[in-house]
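Local shape tokens

___
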Amino acid sequence: MGPQEWLGEDESAKEMLDRVQTDRSFLLLPPLHRVPLRVGNVVEIVGPSPSAKTHILIQAAINCILPQESDGVKYGGLGHLVMFLDLDCRFDILRFSELLKLRILEARGKLLEF
């Protein structure tokens, strides 16, 4: 399936999951690791307000943008770009940057107790 065909698809999440069941998956952070998705797929996460949807997405984004290794430090990331669409305008960039900083400090072995 080419990019134009993939972008033109109008399918439900169930139909998308059924479609990608036959494709080889790549590794994602839990709980998304249970879903066989391909690079480039769009994932919609829904749930009630206190269900940690944003936290899961922030952690996944951090894992995507960090490099696998840089200057001899292993970050374990994928080194890819991320697009985060927030239609409610509730994305907290300070929270994102704090979690990213903690992940970097942890990888460098400089995580200090607060």
